[in-house]
Amino acid sequence: MASAQEESDRPESDRPESDRPESDRSRAGIPVFGTLVPGTLVFDKPAPRRPYAARGLGDRFFRYQLTATGLAVLAIMAGVGLFLLLRAGQALRARGFAFLTTAEWQPDVHRFGIAAVLTGTVLIAAVAVTISVPLAIGTALFISDVAPRKLRRTLVTMVDLMAAVPSVVYGLWGLFFLQQHVIGLSRWLSEWFGWIPLFKVDGTQPGEPLASESVFTASTFVAGIVVALMVAPIQCSVMREVFSQAPAGEREGAYALGATRWGMIRAVVLPYGKGGIIGGTMLGLGRALGETIAVYLIISPVFTIQPHILQTGSNSVSSLIALHYGDASTFGMSALMAAGLALFLLTLAVNFTASSVAARSRSGAQSEA
Amino acid sequence: MTIVETVVEDTPVPIAEAAPAGPSSGASEPVLPADRPRRIGGVSRSGVLSLCGAAASGLCVTVLLFGQLAPFSGGLGFTVAAYLAFLAIYAVLIGLEEDGQAVRDRVMTVVLWTAATLLFSGLFMVVGFTAWRGREALPHGNFFTQDMQSSGPLDPLTHGGIAHAMLGTLTMIAIALAITVPLGLACAVYLNQIPGRFSRFVRTIVEAMTALPSIVAGLMVYATWILGLGMQKSGLAAGFAISVMMLPIVIRASDVVLRLVPGTLTEAAEALGAPRWRTVWHVVLPTARSGLATAVILGTARGIGETSPVLLTAGFTAALNADPTSGPMVSLPLAVFNFVKSPEPAMIARGFGAAAVLMALVLVLFVIARVIGGRGPGHQTKRQARRTARASRRDMERFDELHVPGLSLFERPELSHPTGTAPSVPATGEND
């Protein structure tokens, strides 16, 4: 009795237990109990009973241990940004704002910047997301609503498995297979849509089928297709997860009101899964921005801003690092670190956007619980 | 959803004839003679016929278009044009007997099938191509037992192999797991067990880091371990880089799994007076064991396949090196990357062989994850159930020895429950 009394006299604030969901639940339950037994001394104050054992030495140690782990993980994660910033400082101080606007990469004569590589990175990621998102949404809807019931589990496993295939395998496929077979598509696109600046290819004339094929290889477009195949399973897996959580009651309500299956998808599944679509797209975009090896194997690096996605030559931040880390001087390494920092900040921004969008939407809120 | 679909699947194929009520069905079910469930999915004869008809005529129209009418050419253009013609004709065919809603539904169903087929065939092509090209190197036994130290680019496939890369991959992933598993699982437990502003912050950071570009993880270790502390490039550094990359993935996946542990179980443990750490050790972690294993294995699959952190931190060697603390070390993806940069066909074949081995490794890990993770939290295998039952029986015997009179829970079952409602044995064993 005495210990319980002493317990309830303690102020709320020094009770580390108080923010646990379990004790929240019991706090919600106790006042009812107290009114049921009004005469009892212990239940006079509507405060939660704190488990006696929670104050034991073992538990305190356990708590410190876990908090230390959390701190360690946080330190590692913060260390990534911090050390990059420290190492990049030298290069950033030397170039200042011009680091963002210069397209060349000659750190040893102090003429370098990420304008070209950043443009290339964003273009490759944009091509990848443009191709992968319709495929991923279609496949996710297919798995969650259209596919024969017996097939669904297999398809889910296959998508998850594809998401785990190493990126170097995709790179091999792009380098040895896609490169040769995509030229026809590139040529067709440049012939019919060459008037759009994005699809323009220098060095070919419309209606000249025998022009050199080498202007179409190793382009942003090829790299984009490979990265698209790489990120589509990840996006599809996120979207399918959310689509399959769309409430069965609402689905059946839509059917009961006379909707066809597509009508139901448009009225229930897609609005419900909007957060998942955006979150999945952003997750894929983050992967696409950071992809190194597949892009490195395919593109032929150029250090000018190359807005023509079908034309040979492109670049990305990560392949720039992979290309130059070996032969870099100390200052060159600092410049590469600065490029890495820019990539890091870009993906971080994309990720934060994704998680905040997903958290605000209805589907995201429910998967959080 | 389920109700509607089961109803639909039970009906045979009665869509083409729209007669109000067949006399036979009316006789057997007099209550609802004209009520037929509306079809939502499934296959009907007219549907199949219009699909085939549309496909045939779409093909014909395209052949006509490409051969006779317009100056189009190219295999891909043909496919796209044929598909578009097929869609249009299919829409018209459906429109002959259904309303606009149904037309849209059917057309979109076909489009969704197409999207899934495209994606899966693309992915199959990627995996199949690598496995197919790997067939040249894989049958040679020396490919798995030798390293590349004494083999040059011009040597045939009967010389040299990827033993050094396989050993390197295993060493690096072992180092990464030794760091990731304790740290990652403890951090996931922390996020779940000690909520508060700080742990919410940690969770946000971890979630943002899940898509950390792998090359940035490599750069970080390069900046700290190699440039900062002046260490060599080694397998240990590569293991660190892979850990930095894997850690957020493992934490996030385990966090989700731990959240699924039923609150009733932890509350029961607390109600029995268990301290928090005992609750975690004996209730939360065993309950989530299969899910945690899946999380770790999926993180491992990602970590094994990454090239760029290893590229920056491990260096490159053609020789077998079993010591992760000194000297360069090579992993499978890095070996693939280096093999295929060579113009020699034998080297490229080795690259594809190594990639096939890597894929097989990922596949095996994935299958293991599926087998372990197939059960949800709280579901036990037969062996676990037997062990739990044994522990409970021991507890019962212990209680019997204590034999406190007046507490009916601890009485012998045949004494306190003569009518046969004896407490079943395995219900209490969660704590052992």
TrEMBL record, chain A:
It is a multi-pass membrane protein. Residues 118-354 form the ABC transmembrane type-1 domain. It is found in: Cell membrane. GO terms for biological process: phosphate ion transport. InterPro entries: MetI-like, MetI-like_sf, Phosphate_PstC, Phosphate_Transport_Permease. The chain crosses the membrane at residues 64-86, 114-143, 155-178, 215-234, 293-310, 330-352. GO terms for molecular function: phosphate transmembrane transporter activity. Residues 7-27 have a biased composition (Basic and acidic residues). Residues 1-30 are annotated as: Disordered. Keywords: Cell membrane, Membrane, Phosphate transport, Transmembrane, Transmembrane helix, Transport. Belongs to the binding-protein-dependent transport system permease family. CysTW subfamily. PANTHER family: PHOSPHATE TRANSPORT SYSTEM PERMEASE PROTEIN PST, PHOSPHATE TRANSPORT SYSTEM PERMEASE PROTEIN PSTC. Part of the binding-protein-dependent transport system for phosphate; probably responsible for the translocation of the substrate across the membrane. This is Phosphate transport system permease protein.
From TrEMBL, chain B:
CDD domains: TM_PBP2. One of its GO terms (cellular component) is plasma membrane. It is found in: Cell membrane. Keywords: Cell membrane, Membrane, Phosphate transport, Transmembrane, Transmembrane helix, Transport. One of its GO terms (molecular function) is phosphate transmembrane transporter activity. It comes from the Bacteria. The chain crosses the membrane at residues 48-70, 76-96, 108-132, 162-192, 204-228, 234-251, 351-373. Pfam families: BPD_transp_1. InterPro entries: MetI-like, MetI-like_sf, Phosphate_PstA, Phosphate_transprt_permease. Residues 376-397, 410-432 are annotated as: Disordered. NCBIfam families: 3a0107s02c. Belongs to the binding-protein-dependent transport system permease family. CysTW subfamily. This is Phosphate transport system permease protein PstA. It comes from Streptomyces albiflavescens. The gene is pstA.
